[in-house]
Design a protein that fits this description.
mainly alpha; about 130 residues; 6 helices
């Protein structure tokens, strides 16, 4: 269940000749959508509320980052998973400001590759 990341949901589409206009609902988390739904039983809603109160997004982020580090080490072929860098949440929070500098570059998205290919093809055809 996603408790923290809101997303837009499509409310409707309206076509006006070649123009397609999309309308969206306000961004809500899936948990908020369930709590607002009349179809969900009140006991389930109460269980979701109790679970939400116990969650700490910063502690969850730290656990995710630690697990990612372990996966990277295992993927590199080393035998031992890394020792946890620090169990101190304060040290983790201090490191968040510069964590982006340590990240590796992601592979380009498919639409970027398609765009680059189209630009290169157009450039070649102009040179002919």
């Amino acid at each position: 269940m996603n408790f923290f990341q809101p997303s837009f949901k499509l409310a409707g589409k309206q076509r006006d000749a070649a123009l397609l206009r999309r309308r969206y609902h306000l961004p809500l988390t899936p948990c908020q959508r369930l709590l607002a739904s009349p179809r969900v039983d009140e006991s389930v809603k109460e269980q979701l509320r109790r679970q939400f109160v116990t969650l700490d997004p910063v502690a969850l982020l730290k656990a995710i980052r630690d697990t990612q580090e372990e996966l990277l080490t295992v993927g590199d072929g080393s035998d031992q998973p890394p020792a946890r860098a620090s169990e101190d949440l304060g040290a983790f929070l201090d490191g968040l400001a510069t964590a982006w500098q340590k990240m590796t570059a992601r592979a380009p998205r498919a639409e970027n590759i398609r765009h680059q290919t189209l630009v290169a093809d157009a450039d070649r055809s102009l040179r002919i």
